[in-house]
Specification:
heterotrimer, A mainly alpha (112), B alpha+beta (572), C alpha/beta (101), A: 112 residues, mainly alpha, Four Helix Bundle (Hemerythrin (Met), subunit A), 5 helices, 83% helix, 0% strand, elongated, B: 572 residues, alpha+beta, Rossmann fold, Phosphatase 2c, domain 1, Heat Shock Protein 90, 5-stranded parallel beta sheet, 5-stranded antiparallel beta sheet, 18 helices, 20 strands, 40% helix, 22% strand, phosphoprotein (chain A), protein kinase activity (chain A), kinase (chain A), transferase (chain A)
Chain lengths: 112, 572, 101
């Protein structure tokens, strides 16, 4: 599971629940996540703020099936000060992958 | 994901969540389940929306900017007051400390991320059931409170009306009565009445209706009316009891009745006459000797027997000045301790024995009850009447509304009451009513009644029944006297009492001559009149009273005929 | 509290046994027990062997029973009463209406 960037089963479930709103959900997630990654970068020095952002980000990533992203957020939430810098960088990279995959999913829905 | 719990009823649900994707996802799920959704993206906004829209249920993210979910939850719970607004925390928190924090803030449940729509629907339904249950409980509580208040109001009104009737007697005015009654004793069925007869005797009734509440109180009104009406007119205990019994038997259902003690305390005769049907024993307390004579229940309660079967026999006990009569309700004896042991008559007698200050008897009893039970019951009634000297004679009859123009002033009338009538009829109230047609006599109605009562009972008891007044010299003889009186009256088949009334106008007003004759042996007038007045009072014929109250007294026919006069001045 | 009834083989005697407290809460049960018996029995026995407590509304219920059973013509026995219960019956002089043993 650690390697799952995007859980297709979760997405299938979401599509069923959201019906026509499914693309908007994906779009909202991507937009929201972009804001949070930006916020993580600006808050590098503030451990308390970092943890809170990571907590929220973990929740929405989990809900949307971005399993690895959620896991990294959870680690950041618990991390000691020395590990924080490395984890923020990992989240940054993971989101780049997630973004590409979810944009692909969006295209698939529209084409499909 | 298509399996969903059925929705009971569409609710308005507030979702507070700062993550836009989660908010969109959750509100879509909830809306699909048939509910109406309100949203907020931080705690402060959630409180604001709640205040404005009053949703049924709240889904709240724990960690949010501006105001977090814990603080928002606390405020919303406070705003909701007594109503249950279920609050489910949305959380990816895992640590038990954080979960406990959610509960402390007033959360009712959790929903873990990632969301599972089936579990969410089930939780919403479960919380909705709780919410309805609480609403029903509150509604019923308010209804009960309203009914209770209404009932108390009714009781207050009923009590106010009843107090006017009940206190028309002398219960609060007489200096020789002390009583203790719980404020709402009426609604425990307890009833305490007292009034003077025209001759200054005092009638007291302590009653206890079956049951509680209004049903127990309804019989009190007619009973009080009979008591006051007949006492004021000069009827004795027997007639009053018969009337009360007949009235209650007629109006009450078969399973309702009234235990009662009715007594007549006479300073003039130094006697207390008692009828007890179903009440606990009261006591006559002889102050000189400390002796307590129990006043036992000898009869069925009022309202049980038909008029034909009713037994109006009373007992008469001698009393001296300062002696006390004590009556109580069963609430005193039935006070139970933690082990359901009853206080009982034995313990009451111990309180009597230990009592050093007679005026503190009630307090002693209350203390003993409190010590026995831990608290005092709210349905006890106690009354104590002391025999006092010089109860002034007073006109207690009804107020007269006529002008006096039609008042009869020149007439005479004679009655002969024969054996069969003497047995069962008391003509005094009738005669008194007749004589009070004369306005000038109304001021003296008390004296008039007392004199008539003395002369009539002398004629009946010493004349027709041949009873020797000297029997009454001691307590034993006293009881013997009244036993013989009942016995001889029951078997009476000859004899008479005649009453002649002559009313003549004079220059200044008028004169009433009242002659009473009997068929007895007569008596030695000279010798009886020569007795010292002290003996006369207890065992004599009340002759000193007669001489004191009327303007002229004379005997003839060897003591078989006595004549008294009353004079009055014309009204201005 | 419970109220139990038993009708004798010949149908002439109805026995009503009251267990526990005999007070207003047994009102309806007590009535149901005798009102449903036809033909009316010649004699009614009220068995208080297992009666722990009795108040004035129980006395009222006995009067109702007596009324139902024919009033002055009714023959009702009250049996097995404890000393406390007997005291209550004695103060009210119910022995004048019921055969109390």
């Amino acid at each position: 599971m650690i390697d799952v960037h995007m859980d297709p089963q979760v997405l299938a479930g979401l599509q069923e629940v959201m019906e026509g709103e499914y693309p908007r959900l994906l779009d909202t997630f991507l937009h929201d996540s972009e804001e949070r990654v930006k916020a993580l970068r600006t808050a590098r020095g503030d451990t308390q703020a970092l943890r809170q952002i990571a907590h929220s980000f973990k929740g929405s990533s989990g809900n949307l099936g971005a399993v690895r992203l959620a896991l990294l957020c959870q680690r950041l939430e618990m991390a000691s000060a020395g590990d924080i810098g490395g984890l923020v960088d990992q989240i940054d990279r993971e989101f780049a992958v997630v973004r590409a995959m979810y944009e692909g999913e969006l295209r698939r829905v529209f084409v499909g | 994901m298509s399996v969903q719990a059925p929705v009971l009823e569409a609710l308005t649900i507030l979702i507070a969540e700062d993550s836009a994707a989660d908010l969109l996802l959750l509100s879509t799920i909830v809306r699909r389940q048939g509910h109406q959704v309100l949203t907020a993206t931080n705690g402060a906004e959630a409180v604001e929306v709640f205040t404005r829209e009053r949703p049924h249920l709240v889904l709240m993210d724990a960690l949010m900017p501006v105001m977090d979910g814990f603080e928002a939850a606390r405020r919303i719970k406070q705003l909701a007051g007594e109503a249950l607004v279920p609050l489910i925390f949305l959380t990816s928190l895992r640590e038990s400390e954080a979960l406990a924090q959610c509960l402390d803030a007033g959360g009712d449940d959790f929903l873990a991320k990632p969301y599972n729509p089936v579990i969410l629907a089930a939780k919403i339904n479960a919380m909705d059931r709780l919410r309805r249950l609480q609403a029903t409980v509150l509604q019923q509580r308010d209804l009960i409170a309203k009914h209770h208040e209404y009932l108390l109001h009714e009781q207050r009104v009923a009590k106010a009306v009843f107090d006017k009737v009940a206190h028309s007697g002398c219960i609060n005015a007489a200096p020789n009565i002390r009583y203790l009654q719980s404020p709402y004793a009426l609604f425990n069925g307890d009833l305490l009445l007292a009034a003077y007869t025209p001759s200054g005797d005092m009638h007291v009734l302590l009653g206890d209706f079956t049951g509680h509440g209004l049903p127990a109180a309804v019989g009190a009104m007619p009973l009080a009316e009979v008591f006051y009406g007949m006492t004021a007119k000069g009827y004795g205990l027997a007639q009053t009891l018969r009337e009360m019994n007949a009235k209650l038997k007629r109006i009450l259902p078969a399973d309702m009745f009234c235990c009662a003690t009715l007594l007549c305390l006479s300073t003039q005769r130094r006697a207390v006459e008692v009828w007890n049907g179903g009440m606990p024993e009261g006591y006559v307390h002889e102050v000189a000797t400390g002796k307590r004579t129990p006043l036992m229940s000898r009869h069925l309660p009022l309202g049980v027997l038909s008029a034909e079967q009713f037994d109006d026999r009373t007992e008469v006990w001698p009393v001296a000045l300062g002696d006390r009569v004590f009556l109580l309700s069963d609430g005193v004896l039935d006070t139970a301790d933690a082990n359901e042991q009853l206080f009982g008559a034995e313990r009451l007698l111990q309180v009597f024995a230990a009592n050093r200050e007679p005026d503190r008897l009630f307090e002693d009893i209350e203390q003993a009850l409190a010590a026995f039970r831990g608290q005092v019951r709210d349905d006890i009634s106690m009354v104590e009447i002391t025999l006092q000297a010089g109860q002034s004679l007073r006109a207690t009859g009804p107020l007269y509304a006529d002008s006096g123009q039609s008042c009869p002033l020149d007439w005479s009338v004679s009655f002969e009451f024969r054996a069969d009538t003497l047995k069962r009829y008391d003509p005094l109230p009738y005669l008194l009513q007749l004589l009070l047609e004369i306005h000038g006599l109304r001021e003296q109605s008390g004296a008039l009644y007392s004199v008539m009562a003395e002369l009539y009972s002398n004629a009946l008891e010493h004349g027709v029944l041949g009873l020797d007044s000297r029997l009454k010299r001691d307590a034993e003889g006293f009881a013997q006297y009244y036993r013989l009186r009942n016995e001889r009256l029951t078997h009476l088949d000859t004899g008479f009492v005649r009453v002649h009334v002559q009313v003549v106008p004079t220059d200044t007003g008028g004169t009433l001559s009242l002659r009473v004759e009997d068929s007895g042996q007569g008596f030695d007038v000279e010798r009886v009149l020569a007795r010292p007045p002290d003996i006369d009072r207890l065992s004599g014929r009340g002759l000193s009273l007669v001489r004191q109250l009327s303007s002229a007294v004379g005997w003839s026919d060897g003591g078989r005929s006595v004549c008294v006069e009353f004079c009055w001045k014309a009204l201005a | 509290m419970s109220v139990e009834k038993k009708v004798s083989m010949d149908g002439k005697t109805l026995t009503i046994a009251i267990k526990g407290r005999f007070d207003f809460s047994s009102h309806q049960d007590f009535r149901n027990v005798y009102e449903g018996v036809y033909p009316k029995p010649e004699m009614v026995v009220v068995d208080l062997k297992e009666t722990t407590y009795m108040d004035s509304s129980a006395l009222g219920m006995l009067l109702l029973l007596r009324d139902h059973a024919g009033g002055d013509k009714a023959y009702i026995r009250v049996v097995n009463s404890s000393s406390d219960v007997r005291k209550i019956l004695a103060i009210s002089n119910f022995d004048k209406l019921f055969d109390i043993e």
